[in-house]
Design a protein that fits this description.
Length: 301
């Protein structure tokens, strides 16, 4: 059997009936450089606490599932090199063999479900990669959204991906794709993508109701909430698109494949924008955590 270790804070939240919000750990190990990664997670955890929600960063350490990481664990994940990036395919293998790894959106959803946490906030989801018709590179995050009934709050999928194909795939798989307060799906660094939002929602209670009804009707799969980056933090698409294009060309010429694609592109964009992409990334994660807390509070009523 697997072993779940909860932080003292999460155990306390369960006893007192406090809402819990899940956070992923791959964003720390593969999504952002040190020290901004640790600053980001400390900031978003404090945002959650201020809102009366207990944050639980999820990870696998020495074969145990961790729900809530303490300071030492967070620091360790933020500074350690070569931590495994776990998804649906390899999380059970890692746990069974005493390994350590960070959880992607897919793996975080799996653990959140096991731990009874309904809402998870992050930056961006994985999706259908550009050139997927050749590479077949489609993130397991999409398959997980189709199977696991957790609310995922993200800022849309970023333009390193093929956005129209990503959202077509989600529709085919029956995932509820919600635009929060917008008629157009956001595209991570930018607030617009040109893609109309399938479902528009303007209040967290509507999202809570949506998840409850899916469960009542036994409709498997989750709800993806697309929350646009705050206006003052946005990088307009005309500025970011050429940079993304160059990063994609670089990845192709260096034969980057499989799990390495997303971290490689994030780093290439970070270098090319002199860090501006990271500032935007952190702002949108904070914004998503705020909304994730509001949804978790609604579901806890
Ligand atoms: N997008 C980001 N930052 C990230 C990721 C995506 O802006 O850190 C991470 C998430 O953990 C996501 C994973 O689940 O990358 C997707 O990886 P892949 O494309 O290999 O499935
Ligand atoms: Mn992939």
């Amino acid at each position: 059997m697997y072993n779940i270790i909860e932080s003292a804070e999460v155990t306390k939240a369960r006893k007192s009936g406090t809402a819990i919000l899940a956070l992923e750990s791959t964003i720390i190990t593969h999504g952002m450089p040190y020290p901004q990664n640790i600053e980001m997670v400390e900031k978003v955890e404090s945002i959650a606490r201020e809102k009366g929600v207990t944050p639980a960063t999820l990870a696998v350490i020495d074969g145990a599932i961790h729900v809530g990481l303490d300071q030492d664990h967070l620091k360790d994940f933020a500074t350690r090199k070569n931590v495994a990036k776990l998804s649906r395919a390899d999380i059970a293998h890692c746990i069974a063999n005493g390994g350590t790894g960070a959880t992607t959106v897919a793996a975080t959803m799996i653990i959140a479900k096991l731990a009874g946490i309904d809402v998870f906030a992050t930056g961006g989801i994985g999706g259908v990669h550009q050139g997927a018709e050749e590479s077949f590179d489609i993130s397991a995050d999409l398959g997980e959204l189709a199977k696991t009934d957790v609310v995922v709050v993200a800022a849309g999928a970023k333009a390193i991906l093929d956005l129209p194909k990503t959202f077509e795939y989600l529709e085919t798989q029956g995932v509820a794709v919600i635009g929060y307060g917008v008629d157009e799906l956001p595209a991570f660094y930018s607030r617009t993508s040109g893609i109309p939002t399938p479902l528009r929602v303007d209040h967290p209670s509507e999202i809570a109701a949506s998840l409850r009804m899916r469960r009542a009707m036994n409709i498997e799969g989750g709800v993806l909430v697309n929350n646009p980056i705050p206006i003052d933090a946005e990088i307009p698409s005309k500025d970011i698109l050429p940079i993304i294009k160059a990063a994609l060309t670089k990845a192709k010429s260096e034969n980057i494949t499989a799990k390495n694609v997303t971290p490689f592109l994030l780093d290439a964009i970070y270098q090319a924008t002199n860090g501006a992409s990271l500032t935007a990334n952190i702002a949108l994660v904070e914004n998503n955590v705020r909304l994730g807390c509001d949804i978790a509070l609604e579901l806890n009523k």
